[in-house]
Amino acid sequence: MAYSGRSDIALTDTGRAQALEAAGRLAGAGVDAVITSPLIRARDTARAIADATGAPLTVDERLTEVDYGAFEGLDRAGAREQIGAPFEAWREDPFGAPVPGMEPLADALERARAATADALAAHEHPVIVGHQGILRIVLVALGQIAPENYFATRLHEAQPLIVEDPEVG
After folding, report:
1. CATH homologous superfamily for 13-149?
2. CA 151 to chain centre
3. Domain residue spans in the chain?
4. Do 129 and 154 touch, CB atoms closer than 8 A?
5. Torsion of CA 115, 143, 66, 34, to 10 degrees
6. Does residue 80 contact residue 87 with C-beta atoms inside 8 Å?
7. What is the residue-level pLDDT of the chain in tens, covering all 169 positions?
8. DSSP secondary structure string, 73-133?
9. How far apart are CA 9 and CA 105, in angstroms?
């Protein structure tokens, strides 16, 4: 699987089906807001959820996927080959060893923390729609995963994840 990052790639047929399935699961869940990344793949998923729940949809630029820089579009093997040691160092310490030209995850954490705090302050049951990288960072911001577990945490596309008692820290 390639690092798609900031590339504005549309959902595939499978992705559209997953978005509709997620929307159906959330239809009666009391969702009062849908906040999404501006990238089309997230916006289309968020639109399906907003339509199914009747909740308003808001685009938040701070939920844009991480900028992977030179290895955007590459899979892990290609990134290892092209970037080498800096990529390996980042895989070992994702928040402490950013690849040159890549958005540091610590910076992404600050924007994700702010977006999440705003969503929770304004809404009782918001749905945040984003991407694998930024959503793991949202989970770090909510205290649901430790930064060192960033790569060990795998989210499944368009599968709702309920966070109980979130603490934005």
Report:
1. Phosphoglycerate mutase-like (3.40.50.1240)
2. 13
3. 13-149
4. no
5. -40
6. yes
7. 788 888 888 999 999 999 999 999 999 999 999 999 999 999 999 999 999 999 999 999 999 999 999 888 899 999 999 999 999 999 999 999 989 999 999 999 999 999 999 999 999 999 999 999 999 999 999 999 999 999 999 898 888 888 877 777 6
8. T--HHHHHHHH-HHHHHHHH-TTT-PPTTSPPHHHHHHHHHHHHHHHHHH-SSEEEE--HH
9. 22
Tokens, residue 136: 């793991």
**Token pair for 122:** 């304004």
The DSSP H or E segment spanning 41 is: helix 40-53
